[in-house]
Design the sequence.
């Protein structure tokens, strides 16, 4: 291998590791800041006592919800792919479960990178770019659903100012993302030409062709969501997905003997989902607890009970996704170490994950 190529790969690896370390540090600091806020607001002794009231039979509800929610998300992801290169439902389910696990264990949304690498037969940048487009559609669908749910909370519960500010930020982010995806889908060539002119102006003409190919591949990944019927199906599936999330919260509240209605569970799941937009430590430690506690306080739950409920929900989500991910890694025939090593290699370098012997 020529020396310049080796040097580029070396520096690419160094920069990649530096970015992951910086992301982890920033996320941990944000998480610690959220926990510090909770320490000032909540009596942890009362929260611990509330955990002692767990009612076993109610815990069957989140178990049932998990086995509905994950396949439902996998089916929605499969439908977002263009029909000409759509993976099987089993492949989407396996990769989604592994990606969820990686998001809990690794910083920088590494699980989403894993999904781009694992779902296809090739780890090329072209295929990864197409898959990334399906993830973008998935995130926008979830974001728009969460915005709608928080709007419902604004009507039903008259939330405090910070919830409305969070809603404004979410509308800006997901609205802009939706506009960008529409532009990429229907004005691909015009958008590429505009960006290429910017590259020339910045004297980065060497990147033009590469960017052209990647953006074209990304636009191809949006091809399956061009019909009104397809979008309606995806929107209905998204509504069903977040209904199951609310059902899980309602079941967990019942397990702790807390009076949380389904309407309140919908509101809490929306605020939790939007709160996770903030960069955080792996697994959302800290941010999840703060936003969950504040969300349940809005529904009338005392601060100590709200924290206990949030901790139980977070612990269940963490354990369920880790166990499912490990099992699905075994189905895929790879180890956790192989997955971690693969995520450190830039897609398109010609490397693929081989099953462990």
Sequence:
């Amino acid at each position: 291998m020529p020396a310049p190529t080796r040097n580029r790969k070396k520096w690419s690896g160094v920069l990649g590791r530096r970015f992951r370390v910086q992301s982890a540090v920033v996320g941990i600091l944000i998480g610690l800041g959220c926990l510090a806020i909770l320490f000032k607001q909540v009596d942890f002794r009362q929260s611990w006592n509330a955990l002692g009231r767990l009612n076993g039979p109610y815990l069957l509800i989140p178990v049932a919800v998990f086995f509905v929610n994950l396949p439902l998300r996998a089916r929605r992801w499969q439908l977002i792919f263009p029909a000409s290169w759509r993976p099987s439902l089993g492949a989407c389910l396996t990769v989604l479960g592994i990606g969820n696990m990686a998001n809990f264990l690794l910083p920088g949304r590494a699980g989403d990178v894993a999904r781009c690498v694992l779902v296809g037969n090739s780890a090329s940048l072209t295929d990864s770019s197409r898959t990334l487009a399906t993830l973008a559609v998935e995130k926008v669908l979830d974001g728009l659903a969460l915005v709608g749910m928080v709007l419902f909370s604004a009507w039903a519960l008259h939330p405090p100012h910070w919830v409305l500010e969070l809603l404004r930020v979410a509308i800006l982010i997901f609205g802009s993302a939706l506009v960008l995806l529409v532009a990429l889908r229907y004005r691909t060539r015009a958008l590429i030409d505009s960006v290429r002119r910017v590259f020339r102006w910045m004297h980065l003409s060497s990147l033009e062709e590469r960017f052209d190919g990647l953006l074209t591949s990304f636009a191809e990944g949006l091809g399956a969501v061009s019909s009104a019927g397809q979008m309606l199906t995806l929107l209905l599936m998204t509504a069903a997905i977040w209904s199951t999330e609310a059902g899980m919260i309602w079941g967990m509240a019942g397990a702790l003997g807390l009076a949380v209605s389904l309407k309140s569970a919908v509101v809490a799941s929306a605020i939790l989902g939007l709160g996770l937009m903030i960069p955080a430590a792996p697994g959302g430690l800290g941010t999840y607890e703060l936003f969950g506690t504040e969300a349940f306080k809005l529904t009338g739950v005392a601060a100590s009970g709200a924290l206990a409920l949030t901790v139980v929900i977070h612990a269940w989500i963490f354990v369920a996704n880790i166990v499912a991910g490990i099992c699905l890694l075994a189905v895929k025939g790879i180890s956790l170490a192989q997955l971690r090593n693969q995520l450190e290699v830039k897609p398109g370098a010609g490397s693929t994950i081989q099953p462990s012997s």
Observations:
- The two ends are 29 Å apart (CA to CA).
- Confidence is low (pLDDT under 50) at residues 1-15, 346-352.
- The chain is about 75% helix and 0% strand.
- The first helix runs from residue 3 to 41.
